[in-house]
Amino acid sequence: MESIAAHLRDNRINVLFVRTHDLLRDGGTNLTPEGRYQFCWDLFDRFVSFFLQRAEIKRLAGFHLVKQTEGEEAYVLQPDGKGGLCVRNVPLQSREAEQWFEQFLPALYAHLQEKGWLSYWIQHIEDEPAAPDSWLQVRRLAAQYLPGVPCFDALDNQAPAPALQGAMDIWLPRIDIFEENQDFYAFRAMQGETRWTYTCCVPNTPNYFSKFIDSPYWKNRLLFWACFLRGFTGFLHWGYNYWDTSDIYFGFTPKAYFKGDGYIVYPDPEHDAVRTSIRMENTRDAAEDYELLALLAKADPEKAYQLARRVANSFHDFTWDTGKMKAARLELLQAVESACASSQAGSL
């Protein structure tokens, strides 16, 4: 855990994914015969406090409330038949789901408020929803029981997006979904809404950025130049350490279709730690490039715009010429240095 915290801090990863249900289950939460949950927050508190103290965490992202894409089931804690609880999927319209939400969400809100973590919390509802109904149903519950807490989720298709307007606090389209629907996301930006983006198994064509092991490493570097140009302020990593060796699609196995998609660090069991990757280091360098572009944009927005556009005009329109990349990076450093010198001279 110390190794992970240090790695997050050193690589600009500042949003912590909190598996709320698992931490409550393993922390000793009980369900009485009368159907009342007795939440135990000890392990949850240890986990969150650990990373807040050791990494540069700006946001805590709560575990999803509804099963990915299908939207027909809710994640709840239920008896495991052995005297404890386990995470189970129950129909979203069931009494079990209603009972869970009515107790869990107010308890979560009260605890975050008590710990002073409410301003950190952002809540996942349903990852990559295929339709808006289930997402909106639980979003209304979040508005009722978690007032003021931003809700967001990754979007791998545009179909539900129009109906989510006014309810999605942070827009998170996959890079190709954004490119195909720029007018929609420009309209939402006009309403003052935040937008992040992400990559995943799709698109997996050479003309799009990706984080696959068998892609040129500079694709990680230029990805954030495009994020800057397109007005994105956050990037969601899928994934960090999904080391499932049985998953043929994203898992930690040579047979996986999308190698490296589910992990950007490697296990180091000999040292009980994690090892970084070339892709992670390039992602970190890209974050620093983004910071430099943002600095330059304050002094010379036209220069920042033209530099980014020169190498990464969009998520699928970018140079493959590494010489041009190096030249743009050097010019960026020189421009920021000059802007900083001018600023300091003007303040004397």
Radius of gyration (CA) equals: 22 Å
Order of helices and strands: HEHEEHEEEHEHEEHHEHEEEHHH
Low-confidence stretches: none
Record the strand order, biggest sheet: 1-4-7-8-9-10-11
Discrete helix count: 11
Number of strands: 13
How would you state the average pLDDT, rounded? 96
Question: Could you explain how this protein is built, in words?
Answer:
The protein is α/β, with parallel strands linked by helices and 348 residues long. The protein is built from 11 helices and 13 strands. The strands form 4 sheets. Strands 1-4-7-8-9-10-11 form a 7-stranded parallel β-sheet. The chain has a two-stranded antiparallel ribbon with strand order 2-3. The termini are far apart.
Task: Give a short summary of the structure.
The chain has 348 residues and is α/β, with parallel strands linked by helices.
